[in-house]
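Thread: GDSL esterase/lipase At1g71250-like, structure

OP (GT): Posting the sequence first so everyone is looking at the same thing. Length is 353 residues per the record. Can we get the structure tokens written out before standup tomorrow? I want them in the notebook alongside the other entries.
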Amino acid sequence: MALSLLASLFLLLVVQSGDSANVPAIFIFGDSLSDSGNNNYIPTLAKSNYPPYGIDFPLGPTGRFSNGKLVVDILAEMLGLPYAPPFSDPSTMNNLQILQGVNYASATAGVLDETGKQYMGSIPFNRQIDDFQQTVSRIYTLFGQNTTAMNAYISKALMMVSIGSNDYLNNYLRPDIYSTSTQYTPLAFSNLLVQQIAQQLLALYNMGARKFVVYSLGPIGCTPNQLVGQSCADKVNQMVLLFNSALRSLIIDLNLHLPGVDFAYADAYGIITDILVSPNSYGFSVTWQGCCGAGNLQWNCIAGTAPCNNRNSYIFWDSLHPTEAVNRVVAQRSFAGPPSDIYPFNIQQLASI
């Protein structure tokens, strides 16, 4: 009883102090674009808990695949919330901070369970949802097994979903390892992924989630890892656009047919394409090269290497992931942007619902 009272008082303080009183917590699902350190605690080759990763992050290398903050970190700041701790950290579930959010994202993870298997040990979306279920059970205990209070809390929490890039980069586009490109046309594969995402989002809904922000895939054909000379791999981007179109249609359909739910579709593809087309207008001068010294064929930063000094001038940090400067643009435009950036409402509007 004392513990549940403490949790209730803690939640009251969170709601009163946060910039958006209707968002007491942020729960994060995804891949390396959102991973805040989950892969540190699992046996996998996909890790970034070493320098020069984190060179501009206040805590140094934490497992974030960037020089500094991720989009989800910046959005947490905008919502008046702390950075959501990684679920895989053994201390996370014993901390009352879970009432302000948890990060389940895992580098190389995909919509499909098999995606990224060549790196071993990543946490696919289905397992991330299982981990969220554990968190919900823990919160239920903290609320003194008060179902009404817990459901009210979960319904106000924000679910952030950004996943699917690895289903292309580390599945469909790797015919040496996976057979998906021979089994499915690009259109059929995009439909397969979005049908799976529909079931995964429904699982979160059935656990009480009601506020969602779902990000499209970015133009992964324009990452240094995928470039053809100094041009984007159009074939790859066309695949991504098929996926994004189906995902946007799904979000519209879920808003129409799921009672009490509010989904927002954030167009990361459009936002990052704007940056790539007009880099100077955003303060960027280096478009096709990663800052941290990774070669285009080696996607990750080489441990101990010195990165570029003018990091705010670079779009890409390594050969796949953006710099904090780009993450800040994506966060700001999805937080307060027009319907062309995030539809049918932005995060600031979603928070006020």
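GT: Both are above now. Quick notes for whoever picks this up: The radius of gyration is 19 Å. Confidence is low (pLDDT under 50) at residues 14-20.
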